[in-house]
Specification:
The structure is a homodimer.
Chain A (H helix, E strand, L loop, with lengths): L1 H6 L7 H11 L3 E3 L6 E3 L1 H20 L3 E2 L5 E3 H4 L3 H7 L5 E4 L2 E3 L6 E3 L4 E8 L4 H11 L8 E10 L13 E11 L2 H21 L6 E4 L11 E8 L5 E11 L1 H5 L3 E3 L5 E3 L1 E8 L1 H10 L16 E6 L3 H20 L4 E3 L7 H10 L4 E6 H6 L1 E6 L5 E5 L3 H26 L1 E3 L3 H8 L4 E5 L4 H11 L2 E6 L7 E2 L6 E2 L2 E5 L3
Parallel strand pairs in A: 3-9, 17-18, 17-19, 22-23
Antiparallel strand pairs in A: 1-2, 4-8, 5-8, 6-7, 9-10, 10-16, 11-12, 11-24, 12-13, 13-16, 14-15, 19-20, 20-21, 23-27, 24-27, 25-26
Helix pairs in contact in A: 3-7
């Protein structure tokens, strides 16, 4: 392990390589035999499970229910909504046959040409089409509304350049799809779920986010409005972390979903969809981790506290175990997940490095001298600070320390973002500042053409038009035309 | 609703139609636009979620962790294990292209012939191949073993005749894949998970099962031994409800997965796999439900108790609500899920029929007279019996009643199975008895040929060679050759 740690690239040497190394070395995920598809390893999956559980709770608290819709979508469904097909047809996995047969030469199996599908099926890149085709039969009257469904599912988009968690061909996500009687109610829902995502990011992932609206260029294919939460990584690049779409009546029109309103008149249904994915794992890793490995927020760490005994013989070990066992029990009763690692086949130094690499928030080490003194060594992963503490009352202090770490890494990320957010007035200034990374607040004339020009010349895109903050109008830094408010530019993942 | 209930086919008229009706009318699932794929509706999915949560808890208690492996499998992987490819190549969805493009005539989208994959990909029908290809890099020494992974996933098998939950092209399941250093340890694991499945079926689903071993004909493609739990439905047909496979070293050999053992010698790894699926929903529905609708075991019911107020005006309703609110709170504190349905737009009779159809185990109805008398009407779904009870102490009685219902439906199903299980000596007797349905215990000479003959002539298969019970040897009812013990024959789903 000492060797492996040495192999972890330093952030300042190569941030991108550091990320790739970390995903592998912390046992989070690895590439599979299928291009662009990853294997999520048990430790990585355990973090994702904690995310899922919390998000699922928040969805249910806001009145949503889970359901499950088919993996495969008839090809013709994709082209029903004009913008949607442009956005998704280019990158999808197409099922054309339903059977293999033995190769005549005995070399294995080949596709059976007799088993060709009449209409090809697409592995869902997102499920608006199949779901709205289903909703047609669920919705007749305003009494059937709203429908507030979510599904946890895998989706597939044929990406050319992939990076584990950040951009993979197959990924896991949740997609909420809601149906409403009025425009206003649908818009409220889209904003409500944006707020749920922001709360989750900030309170559980300890990742500060900016809530905003996407420009037309960056909008979801088929949406009238896309809301987003944008986070800043340690290298100053933006990561879109969750989106919530107001779909208007586009999908209702494409799939002919109408309802009879209270005035007894037929009307198209209003829609939203919203999703977060295993991409959040990438945001989590890149926001907090350091050159020693992962730093996990206590609210999502599969192991929150690890206790490592330091002993010279079995007698010492047994004494330590006897002292530690009741502490472990009380911690567990308080809902804190603890691992007591008294495994004999690895030395303490090896274990320390491993749990640092894995980002366990709090490590306790206890040896013979501690036993004699009634003390324990406490190391917090975020600052790597060690302190010797009294065993008496240690449970309360661990509970408080976990909350302190949770808050500290959030504040640290927030300060980092603030220090890398600047306001510019001119395009020249912009070009200079964007090279240094971070978020640049600048005026823009609201046109796709100007945004496109800036992107081509600087590789920066509009991450969002922020919902909160300064709303002073001004003049576009490129064209000098009127600008309603400053927007956030950044290079992004 | 009264109308819809009338439309529910009676079991004795057409059991199969009753099942299909019930799945639709109880809002569990429906057919989708993709042949053989169903939509699992929120109420059905809520039951499946309860199953998942409990199974996941049991897997973790037995030392397993979750992970996630790719949806798509390279075609060539399938043919690595000779038996496996025979079992699965015939019925799989094949991805051949990775892009669509606009049709030249503007009619929609077509497959882009330029985007043909070099090697086709298969949507996983099960994941042994991709997982063992992954394990090759995870396993080097006996110290890396055992690996005890599970995944919750969707799988796809191109079935020609489908029925919701029982046999669908896409279904949801969990698949455990474990790797071991010794044959004995792998066999123990396979049996351990069989026992976990049996416990789950009996204690949570209230479905009695027979644990046994599959004959060679019914074995999983690639396994040395398949263990199974077999349940009997109300129509006397068997339903295979979960299987656990001892795979020997077959997949380790196919994917070249070796480890260095304690004697420092290379050896192939030993394997198991085990799975249960949304098919369990079919078992649950068909075991307990009746002509009034679903009957759900309290341990898996999304709503365990529903409370319906009966009132003539808002004042009465408010009085009832005031009385009921603290009861609801106490029930929830005890972990009992309660719905207080004071919705104004449906009459009590309609609500009663609807909650019966949905299988809610306990229904309370409370009206003005009850308020005056301090009473409540309690209806239990399993027997449809009503009783008037004192409100005082009602919380304790509901807790006890839920357990009583759980036990009662299990006992009822067990008695049904026992009453439909017979022993026969001759093949003539067998042919007569098999027509009446149920499990037939008979002697069999252990050959695939005899089993095949019986299947052709009677449509009955060997469901399993039971692990428990009578082990007396005898003579095969068909050939007169020696038989080690009686086996269970039945027609099956």
């Amino acid at each position: 392990m000492a060797i492996e740690l040495k192999d972890l690239t330093k952030r300042q040497d190569n941030y991108s390589q550091w990320y790739n190394d970390l995903v592998i070395k912390a046992d989070l995920a690895e590439q599979s035999a299928v291009r662009g598809c990853m294997v999520i390893k048990p430790y990585g999956y355990a973090i994702w499970e904690k995310m899922q559980q919390q998000l699922d709770r928040m969805f249910k608290e806001t009145g949503h229910v889970n359901a499950y819709f088919p993996l495969l979508i008839p090809k013709s469904f994709l082209s029903r909504e004009a913008d949607h097909v442009e956005g998704f047809a280019k990158e999808c996995a197409v099922v054309t046959h339903y059977r293999l047969k033995n190769a005549p030469d005995g070399s294995g199996v080949v596709v059976d040409p007799a088993a060709k599908l009449e209409e090809e099926l697409i592995i869902r890149p997102t499920s608006e089409t199949i779901i709205w085709n289903t909703y047609r039969n669920w919705i007749h009257s305003y009494r059937d509304l709203p429908i507030l469904c979510n599904q946890w599912a895998n989706v597939f988009r044929w990406e050319m350049r992939t990076r584990m968690f950040l951009r993979t061909a197959e990924f896991l996500w949740q997609e909420g799809h809601t149906a409403h009687a009025t425009r206003e109610e649908a818009l409220d829902e889209a904003v409500k779920m944006l707020n749920v995502y922001a709360d989750f990011a900030e309170k559980y992932m300890a990742v500060p986010v900016i809530k905003g609206v996407k420009s037309a260029n960056e909008r979801f294919a088929g949406a009238l409005e896309t809301f987003t939460i944008e986070a800043m990584m340690q290298d100053g690049k933006a990561l879109q972390s969750g989106t919530s779409h107001f779909l208007g009546q586009n999908f209702a029109k494409a799939f002919d979903v109408t309802f009879v309103n209270k005035e007894n008149k037929p009307e198209y249904v209003w829609a939203t969809s919203w999703g977060v994915s295993t991409r959040l794992m990438g945001a989590l890793i890149m926001t907090h981790s350091d050159d020693n490995g992962l730093v996990l927020p206590p609210h999502l760490a599969p192991i929150q506290v690890v206790i490592v005994p330091i002993y010279k013989n079995n007698e010492q070990r047994d004494e330590i175990t006897a002292k530690v066992t009741p502490i472990v029990e009380v911690l567990r009763k308080r809902g804190i997940s603890v691992k007591y690692d008294d495994a004999d086949n690895r030395r303490p130094g090896f274990k320390f490095a491993d749990y640092e690499l894995k980002g366990v928030p709090v490590r306790l080490a206890i040896g013979a001298r501690d036993l004699a003194n009634g003390t324990v060594e406490v190391m917090r992963r975020d600052t790597l600070q060690k302190s010797v503490e009294q065993l008496d009352g240690i449970v309360d202090r661990i509970g408080a320390l976990l909350e302190e770490i949770q808050d500290n890494i959030y504040q640290k990320a927030l300060k980092h973002r603030e220090s890398m957010t600047r306001t510019v007035e001119t395009y020249d200034e912009f070009k200079e500042e964007i090279e240094k990374g971070g978020f640049i607040l600048a005026h823009w004339d609201g046109t796709p053409e100007t945004e496109e020009k800036i992107k081509e010349e600087t590789k920066a895109t509009i991450r969002c038009i922020p919902l909160d903050g300064d709303k002073t109008p001004g003049k576009c830094m490129v064209t000098g035309k009127p600008s309603a408010q400053r927007v956030i530019f950044a290079r992004n993942y």
